[in-house]
């Protein structure tokens, strides 16, 4: 188990933190947590402000293949796959890739290459047999669950591919970063400093790798 940055080639998103704080209301949070059209493709104050394929996940797909030593035909599951951008890029490398997401909207508006490969569901109850994947990943998703369900979700990833997992979640190193995160966040229900996350991983029996998303 190790801290590992597999998303180092992705450009950082442009965030106007003070504008988000000014615009954010309880209603924005409620709607964002429905993970529907407004969250993905509505105004920026509800989420992404437009979630479109631009090829940025190709390098992440390459990093994952290299890190896990995947070969053509190996199975990988992306938990929190949204519209399946990373699944698409893994398929182009010969990986038998699948995704799971809570959003009907995202799955119904997925990339055409991944139609039939994306499952509707939540991370704390993955509908797959134990040890059924060569690798399982979850990027910027598990923090959207409350603590107890997040704990179950980490255990579920571990169950499907023990030691062959990667998790990235929201965190912060300093009080200032925590303040910025809380100004920006819409959907996260559990978040903590790295030490807190590492305690959760240990409690879940997690033996995979991880990294943090830091909002600055």
Sequence stretches where pLDDT stays below 50 over 5 or more residues: none
The first-to-last residue Cα distance is 26 Å
Radius of gyration: 16 Å
Enumerate the strands of the largest sheet in spatial order, edge to edge or round the barrel. Answer: 3-2-1-4-5-6
Relevant CATH superfamily: Vaccinia Virus protein VP39
- Based on Cα principal axes, name the global outline: globular
Using DSSP, what is the number of strands?
6
Strand content: 5-15%
- CATH class, named Alpha Beta
The structural domain count equals: 1
Largest sheet: 6 strands, parallel
Structure annotation, total helices: 9
| Helical content (DSSP H or I, runs of 4+) | 25-40%
Derived from helix and strand composition plus strand pairing, the structural class reads alpha/beta
What order do the SSEs take from the amino end to the carboxyl end, as H and E? HHHHEHEHEEHEHHE
CATH-derived topology: Rossmann fold
CATH architectural name: 3-Layer(aba) Sandwich
Mean pLDDT: 94
């Amino acid at each position: 188990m190790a801290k590992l940055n597999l998303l180092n080639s992705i450009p950082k998103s442009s965030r106007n933190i003070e504008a988000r704080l000014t615009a954010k209301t309880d209603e924005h949070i409620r709607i964002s947590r429905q993970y529907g059209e407004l969250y993905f493709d509505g105004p920026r104050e509800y989420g992404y402000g437009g979630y479109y394929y631009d090829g940025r996940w190709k390098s992440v797909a390459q990093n994952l293949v290299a890190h896990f030593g995947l070969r053509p035909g190996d199975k990988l599951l992306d938990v929190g796959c949204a519209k399946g951008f990373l699944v698409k890029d893994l398929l182009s490398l010969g990986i038998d890739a699948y995704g799971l997401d809570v959003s009907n909207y995202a799955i119904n508006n997925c990339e055409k290459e991944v139609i039939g490969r994306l499952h509707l569901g939540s991370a704390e109850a993955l509908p797959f047999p134990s040890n059924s994947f060569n690798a399982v990943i979850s990027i910027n998703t598990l923090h959207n669950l409350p603590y107890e369900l997040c704990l179950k979700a980490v255990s579920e990833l571990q169950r499907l591919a023990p030691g062959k997992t990667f998790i990235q979640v929201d965190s912060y190193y300093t009080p200032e970063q925590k303040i910025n995160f809380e100004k920006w966040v819409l959907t996260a229900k559990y978040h903590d400093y790295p030490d807190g996350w590492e305690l959760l991983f240990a409690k879940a029996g997690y033996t995979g790798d991880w990294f943090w998303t830091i909002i600055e």
